[in-house]
Amino acid sequence: MALLFLAASSAAALLPTPGAIGSLPAALGFGLPSAGAPAAAAASTVLGYRLLTVWLPLIPGLLVLAAVIRRRAL
């Protein structure tokens, strides 16, 4: 799995998108089933990975932004 992730990250680096959104999940989505994982498990794993690494870290930023706007410090 580590080798698959390294290969997917290398392939995603060839298509420069912000945060590798789109290219990395596509490479992982095609790579995991080819490594023998069931397609449904691969899709849920890739979606969970992107949720934890891209979308979940935005929550503290949104909370801080709301606090700054509430104090009118921005």
Structure notes:
The protein starts with a helix and ends with a helix. Helix 1 (2-14) runs antiparallel to helix 2 (23-34) and helix 2 runs antiparallel to helix 3. The radius of gyration is 16 Å and the shape is elongated. It has 74 residues and is mainly alpha-helical. The longest helix is centred in the middle third of the chain and has 17 residues, at 39-55. The model has no long low-confidence stretch (mean pLDDT 86). The chain has helices at residues 2-14, 23-34, 39-55, 58-71. Helices cover 76% and strands 0% of the residues.
Task: State the gist of this model.
By secondary structure, the chain is mostly helical. The protein is built from 4 helices and no strands. The protein has helices at residues 2-14, 23-34, 39-55, 58-71.
Protein topology:
Layout: H1 2-14, H2 23-34, H3 39-55, H4 58-71
Helix pairs in contact: 1-2, 2-3
Would you tell me the structural class of the helices and strands?
mainly alpha
As a percent range, the share of strand residues is under 5%
Number of helices: 4
Low-confidence stretches are none
Q: How would a crystallographer describe the biggest sheet?
A: none
Gross geometry: elongated
Radius of gyration using CA atoms only: 16 Å
Measured as a percent range, the helix fraction is: over 70%
Measured distance between first and last alpha carbons: 44 Å
The average pLDDT is 86
Please give the number of β-strands: 0
Keywords:
mainly alpha; 0% strand; 4 helices; 74 residues; single chain; elongated
